[in-house]
Amino acid sequence: MIKGIGLDIVEIRRIDRSLNRGTRLADRILTAKERKKFDELASPRRQAEYLAGRFAAKEAMAKAAGKGIGRLSFQHIETSSTEDGAPVLHVRGYEQNQLFVSITHSMDYAAAQVIIEE
């Protein structure tokens, strides 16, 4: 049974501008494992896309859970990838649920959708 659905979209340009001022946003959004992957990315553009996608996924998770970010921290939500590159969510407190996530990018936007299933 579906427990929640969340969707979010982020302008990559806004994330890029924030990264040009420093890493404060990345430090706030990304877990240590995500930050390691972020730091390994080859270009500032790819870093902005990655951060925008993770931001959108975490916001979508909070929406699917029916909570805002703050009640469900960015640090409680971690993304990883399967061997095939598909995104996976790990969320503290939601281990008993099946989580589905899709992250997409265009030139200007990153978007994510999350479905929580009991």
From TrEMBL:
Q: What role does it play?
A: Transfers the 4'-phosphopantetheine moiety from coenzyme A to a Ser of acyl-carrier-protein.
Primary place of residence? cytoplasm
Stated EC number for the protein is 2.7.8.7
**What is the name of the protein in this document?**
Holo-[acyl-carrier-protein] synthase
UniProt-recorded Gene Ontology molecular function terms:
holo-[acyl-carrier-protein] synthase activity
By sequence similarity, the record places it as follows: Belongs to the P-Pant transferase superfamily. AcpS family.
Ranges where the 4'-phosphopantetheinyl transferase domain occurs: 4-112
Organism lineage: Bacteria, Bacillati, Bacillota, Bacilli, Bacillales
In the UniProt record, does the keyword DNA damage occur?
no
Keywords attached to this Swiss-Prot or TrEMBL record, sorted alphabetically, are: Cytoplasm, Fatty acid biosynthesis, Fatty acid metabolism, Lipid biosynthesis, Lipid metabolism, Magnesium, Metal-binding, Transferase
Provenance organism: Virgibacillus xinjiangensis
